[in-house]
Amino acid sequence: MNPPTIRQRDVPTLAQRLHADDVAHQVLAARGVTSADELVFSLGDLPGPEALPDIDVALRRLLQARRRDERVLIVGDYDCDGATSTAVAVMGLRAFGYGQVDYLVPNRMADGYGLTPGIVTRAIEQFKPALIITVDNGIASVDGVDAAHAVGIDVIVTDHHLPPEVLPSAVALVNPARHESEFPSRHLAGVGVVFYVLVALRAALAASSKADEQAASGVKLAMFLDLVAIGTVADVVSLDPVNRILVEQGLRRIRAGQCRPGVTALLEQAGRSAAQASTADIGFALGPRLNAAGRLDDMRRGIECLLCDDPVEAVRAAAELERLNTERRQLEARMRAEAEACLGANADVAASVAVGSVSPSEAFGVCLYDADWHPGVIGIVAGRLKERLHRPVVVFTAEGESEVKGSARSIAGVHVRDILQNMANAHPGLLERFGGHAMAAGLTLPRARLEDFATLFDREVRKQLDNRLPTREWLTDGALPRTAYSLATARCLQWLMPWGQGCAAPLFSGCFEVSSSRVVGNGHLKLALMPVDGEDTVLDAIAFNEARTFANGTRLQAVFALDVNHYRQAERLQLMVKHIEQDTPLALTEPG
After folding, report:
1. Do the beta carbons of residue 142 and residue 170 sit within 8 Å?
2. Do 303 and 279 meet the contact criterion of CB atoms below 8 Å apart?
3. Mean pLDDT, to the nearest integer, of 305-318?
4. CA of 35: how far to CAs of 16, 19, 460, 591, in Å?
5. Tell me: the pLDDT tens digits for 509-558?
6. Contact predicate 379/294, CB 8 Å
7. How far is residue 11 CA from its own chain's centroid?
8. Cα(537)–Cα(533) distance, rounded to whole angstroms?
9. Which segments of 270-310 does DSSP mark as H helices, in order?
10. What is the 3-class SS of 342-361, one letter each residue?
11. Which of 13, 46, 147, 488 has the most CB atoms at less than 10 Å from its CB?
């Protein structure tokens, strides 16, 4: 594999000063911010819901359901976005006076994804709904929607996933990712779409009658923004201007203690401070704990935690999610070790196998299979391997007697869902089901076609990459001036914007001399580093999942973020090291 390169972001010259701090101004300008007004994140700057596809049709059916006091069933998804979407939909409709609102979430292992005919059957047996509303799923549920219609149940789809060529015949398909959508953001998470439907419903109720107007005016939709922020960040959607406002407003509510009791309890279980909550806390603490329910058990556990109004009950629910997350981590560690063995020198004796006609060391798209791997964890393992190998990875496990289930993770420049679509078009029968985004996808295929898939997947990835494996690139904000190695700069950057996909947190590069290094915890490298041009300044640093140690005096090239380490009620500057190399400096590319 080619050595990584560091490329410094372009910083355009702006007429307006974005921030009093020089580093903050540079970071903002490099991310396309042109005015300090963009840092206000006002709810008043959000676009209205009018341009969402089918929103008017959806509202007419929702108003009809309320007038008739129909039983409404929310069908969600088993990930964090699905859990928050379901909770927001249930609480929102109940707040608007819908008297019969229930929810149903497929079980990852037993039911598969989305509104399937089987889920429709369960819905009828358990709830007998007149209206089904899908959240964070449904745009590809052609058979499920047909099954509902066949028994007289209407379906409103709210989703954000890329639409397939054939759309379901639902009453309404509210999805900003539809090709004809004119909504200003195509990157809303599922929970963002649900929130916008509630915004539109409140306006429709206000215009309906005096009684409805009074009912609607008492509902403060901002109370759902903590969950909107959690689902948006956890689903790794692009933080475009609309999502930045939604996430920042949600974080502000969490920091102010105005969040759901379940959110507070989950943060406490993770040892995180609600008053200091950031997108990192969502991504590394809240998201994994909610996802653990859907991965290993039943996402109802996660949804009930979010719906809970009693703080004591919320603590119990959060403790159960903590237990499941611990179990998930243990499973992940075992599966990852087996996958690493398969990729290493002991592949012949590994339980897992690499599939396809090309060896993993030479493949552009890597496929691994083990019949005993847990289907709820294969996506995490695929993501870890993708990061290590810097190439697309699909991890498979058994699905029943004759199928395999896969989870794909990709790299920049390889749109994995498009690859699957191309393969499905060119090879009918190869894929039974698939769906996803540019960077992640899920799929099911006949076990007998696994080798064929792996060979064709590698071939398709090679085509997208023009037969050249990409060099891993670290896009940074350059070197820090010595005076910027401070708590003040770290705090400033931490609260500057909601960082995430499409709005990357600040990263810097520099040369350091090792003062000390040791491995701590479960394979993390704790360092004391001195900037080469920093006189005698010694900085704490940590590199997660880095087992190498370095002799004192070794010079390192590092890519890092500034972090505020909270320990025993004290704050200290810490470098979060993302990449380190010694002896052979990383190739450095100037802006442009």
Report:
1. no
2. no
3. 98
4. 7, 10, 42, 22
5. 999 999 999 999 878 999 999 999 766 789 999 999 888 899 999 999 99
6. no
7. 28
8. 9
9. 279-281, 287-296, 300-307
10. HHCCCHHHCCCEECCCCCCC
11. 147
**Where would I find the beta strands (DSSP E) of 505-569?**
508-520, 524-531, 539-543, 555-567
Write out the two tokens for 16.
Answer: 């307006």
Question: Which token pair is 564?
Answer: 């505020």
Q: Which of 74, 72, 79, 75 shows the shortest CA–CA distance to 299?
A: 79
| Terminal CA-CA length for the chain | 24
**CA distance to 290, 378, 407, per residue, from 353 (Å):** 30, 14, 15
- Rounded to an integer, what distance in angstroms lies between the CA atom of residue 98 and that of residue 90? 9
pLDDT in tens, 109-163: 888 889 999 999 999 999 999 999 999 999 999 999 999 999 999 999 999 998 9
CA gyration radius, the chain: 25
What's the pTM value of the predicted model, to 2 decimals?
A: 0.91
Half-sphere exposure of 4 (CA within 13 A, CB side): 20
**165-197 pLDDT tens trace:** 899 999 999 999 999 999 999 999 999 999 999
Tokens (6 digits) for 428: 């009918």
Q: Which residues of 305-333 are buried (b: 16+ CB within 10 A; e: fewer)?
A: bbbbeeeeebbebbebbbebbebbeebbe
Which residues contact residue 230 at a Cβ distance below 8 angstroms, ignoring those fewer than 6 apart?
A: 80, 84, 191, 250, 263, 282, 286, 287, 290
Residue pair 404/369 in contact by the 8 Å Cβ criterion: yes
Q: Name residues whose C-beta falls within 8 Å of residue 77's C-beta, 6 or more positions apart in sequence.
A: 83, 85, 86, 105, 106, 113, 114, 135, 136, 137, 190, 294, 299
Question: How confident is the model over 348-360, as pLDDT tens digits?
Answer: 333 445 666 667 7
What are the backbone dihedrals phi and psi of residue 367, each rounded to the nearest 5 degrees, phi first?
-125, 130
C-alpha closest to that of 72 among 156, 143, 142, 136: 156
Amino acid identity for residue 206 in this structure: A
The residue assigned the tokens 């039943």 is 298
Report residue 510 as tokens: 């520099």
Structure confidence at residue 46 (pLDDT): 98
Tell me the Ramachandran region of residue 503: left when phi exceeds 0, alpha when psi lies from -120 to 50, beta otherwise: beta
Quick one: which H or E segment has residue 576?
A: strand 570-582
